[in-house]
Amino acid sequence: MEGIEVVVAHAERATLRVGDVFLKVDTDQARIDAEVAAMALAPVPVPRVLWRRPPVLAITAVPGTTLGRLGAPSTGSPAAWAAAGAAIRKLHDAPPPPWLGQAGRSIDTLTALLAEECAALVTSGLLPADLVDRNRRIAEAALRPWTPAFTHGDLQIAHVFVDGDQVTGIIDWSEAGQGDALADLATFTHGHEEHLDDVLAGYGADADRDVIRAWWSLRSLLIIRWLIAHGFDPFAPGCEVDVLRSRL
């Protein structure tokens, strides 16, 4: 063992890597419970649970490397992105868990959150009104009825591991549950619009691209203030603010 790697850390949770073991510390035990339950049900490769001692969950590392991260070019091939799309489709086609996940927030809840965040982004001076207003109009296309699916809820590309053109593992299931399948697809391609065609080649062409694009705007608008409050930089090149600017 060469040392301890801090994978992610903020006021709500932290993930450490110790050799081939990930230690997840979460202030909300319900998130850990949901993660363990979701991994037991998910029909895709997931880490193995080693032990649980609240507030810590120990899981195995998964082989391979991630497709990349937000704000940086992807190292994954088109075939790897398509394989990820196929794995996501397998997840979405599985019977959904009995609980709502992060992607399962109601239209009314999202509408209220969108209004609150847009107002705060403008009044605080974080973003210009025209940028916020344009993306709010785009985001509203995501506020429509959806059929419940088994969703990951936080399907960032850093959470999907591949080896060559095969998916070897999907991690971080604490936000999983019933939700909008297109929210997962949008999170996965967020900031990597150039790979949307590759993902949908594996997932299936029936996904509504306009709704996926709407979710790019919605996700960015809803998360910018949270990111800043937790020590992340949504203004970094290729990240959330650039995603909003690209909609113009």
Automatic annotation (TrEMBL):
For this protein, the record's InterPro entries field holds: AGP_Transferase, Aminoglycoside_PTrfase, Kinase-like_dom_sf
Q: Where's the Aminoglycoside phosphotransferase domain?
A: 22-214
Put simply, this protein is called Aminoglycoside phosphotransferase
